[in-house]
Write a structure and sequence with these properties.
Length: 173
């Protein structure tokens, strides 16, 4: 089965630096197949015969042992990522994929930890993902900052909609 592996906080600033070629080689050496990366921010599509929990644990171990990186990892299998794209709860609202985000949670989010949302921003909650529309951008709005300060799940990482769509298209190629 194909999996999408999302590394949190990789190649942001001076910390947790890793080349995508090195990452691909490390994952292939560990037995993952058809390893492909997108951008420099820790987006990986790969094949594996286990389940998502096994992929997450193995990737985390490789990152620690081979690269000395203690970064969080969130994994979705191909069916889950396709369902996220098909669901598309902001389809009629969000007009710019670079200002629209999916927050991927390691487990079901805690509704008590969700921030107040002020227009024009919007937040649509699903059990394992949050869909955020930040029409003024991530830096000029409060929503993404608030989600970062008080994450709704033990591990969260976000990708803009353009990246989510590219990852989905990689599942087909």
């Amino acid at each position: 089965m194909q999996f999408v592996v999302l590394l949190r906080g990789v190649n942001v600033g001076a910390n947790n630096r890793i080349g995508m070629g090195e990452l691909r080689a490390g994952l292939e050496d560990a037995g993952f197949a058809n390893v492909r990366t997108l951008l420099q921010s820790g987006n990986v599509v790969l094949l594996h015969h286990g389940d998502g929990q096994e992929v997450e644990a193995r990737v985390r171990r490789i990152l620690t042992e081979r690269f000395g990186l203690g970064v969080d990892v969130v994994v979705r299998d191909e069916d889950a990522l396709r369902a996220i794209v098909a669901d598309d709860p902001l389809a009629g609202v969000a007009t710019d994929g670079s200002r629209r985000f999916v927050v991927f949670c390691s487990e079901q989010h805690d509704p008590a930890r969700l921030p107040e949302v002020a227009p024009p921003e919007q937040l649509v909650c699903r059990p394992m993902e949050l869909h955020a529309w930040c029409p003024d951008g991530m830096r000029d709005g409060r929503l993404m900052t608030d989600l970062g300060r008080r994450p709704p799940a033990p591990v969260t990482t976000f990708r803009n909609w353009n990246t989510v769509m590219k990852l989905a298209s990689m599942l087909d190629g």
